[in-house]
């Protein structure tokens, strides 16, 4: 009996292994949305007309909203064909202005190209989704476009509740990821067989994905599962924990379970990570550096020291920065009472920030760095009290009560506080270039890296890197792209444009033979003010 049980258990184990091996792996891809799909769709629409009568006689382009008709420059589209007919068919007019305003607002908030956001998608009434996809499927079967490059699908509508968003993905983009690997799968709640969850990407593919969603066009990025467009990626989680959310539609629970088995069978083992240099930071250490800044702004020149105290290390580093000996000067150009008052307040704010210390957080996958005040609640309360004191003082002395904006009724005092808010959000960091620069390349480069191109948060753009070695150790050089590039549509005759074509940020990191960071040189030109700085390790 024992022998029979043993044979059966071996048989079951072998059967399970065979089933697992026979499961078709799930293919996960990531592609950018085509920057401007309108000409492509117009071409497909024209070529479809001889083949589509068994589906509909209506041209493909006529399923798109009035906003896109304007893009296509359909000057022969009369009022009855566009506006009135559209309202009769859909019960409402397309919210063209609302779409443009919402797209522009979201793009501006994200620091993205407004024009790109307005033209990357096509609106389709939800009732017409099936017809549009049938037409596009027919176009694919008839090879009416480059099917090896483009794929179509309906994406997530983040701006309009009453529209479906048709997007074209560019599979041949130089940033595309046709096949991504993942090391773990987490399943969440499922409904009617459909499955949601998250994948943990390999370190290498997470870096590729970061490079993809920072593509120069700033286009959205979609996940594709087994050749079907599924979901825009969550840009926030990738640099933090390499996790990507997914959703897969299934007909029933059985199909959903089969998909999960295929997904589990597609998990790979994380290849060993071999960094170019050892980590600079260990919890419990204190590193001391000195920085000398030379800037167009005479109020931030000079020398001071700062201490770095690591609080957490890993994929994400959190380091406390304690700035010492910073001499905050009053700028010499402040001539008016308004400027002097603003500068006085900025000095007070910066000194209070220095008392609270700073927390630098960076991802070694991306070099993406953020800076925050250590005791944010305490500083916020202090700042709230400062603004109350200012308002009371100005009201008592009738200073800065002149209305500067008749439309908004804004006074000089309100304008001062607005600019002070901006100073806290960004301007204060002008004093402290070390906060962004010091740990940006930490664990970013891998063994064997020599030269290349990638996105660097420190540069705020794509740039090139080169790595060299000599008797003193290792040198890493980063060089950003100019603010205005050669192929940008600009007025080349404008001297200011020519100047922007030469403004390039550059950094050099010097490590000793043991891999310790000893010096950083920075030249910042893509900014309101030019500044050079040198950071040197003291101990």
Strand order of the largest sheet: 14-13-12-11-10-22-21-20-19-18-17
The gross shape turns out to be: globular
Structural class: alpha+beta
Count of distinct strands: 22
- Tell me the radius of gyration: 29 Å
Work out the count of structural domains: 2
Distance between the termini: 72 Å
Average residue pLDDT: 78
Residue runs with pLDDT of under 50 for 5 or more positions: 17-21, 66-105, 111-118
Our estimate of the beta-strand percent is 25-35%
Number of helices: 15
Query: Helical residue percent?
Result: 25-40%
Keywords:
11-stranded antiparallel beta sheet; 26% strand; alpha+beta; 2 domains; 15 helices; 539 residues; 3-stranded antiparallel beta sheet; 22 strands
Write a structural description.
There is one protein chain. Helix content is 33%, strand content 26%. The chain folds into 2 domains: 26-68 and 116-264, no CATH class; 285-536, no CATH class. It has 539 residues and is an alpha+beta fold. The protein has 15 helices and 22 strands. The strands form 5 sheets. It has an 11-stranded antiparallel beta sheet. A 3-stranded antiparallel beta sheet has the order 1-7-8.
Can you describe this structure in just a few lines?
This protein is 33% helix and 26% strand. The chain has 539 residues and is of the alpha+beta class.
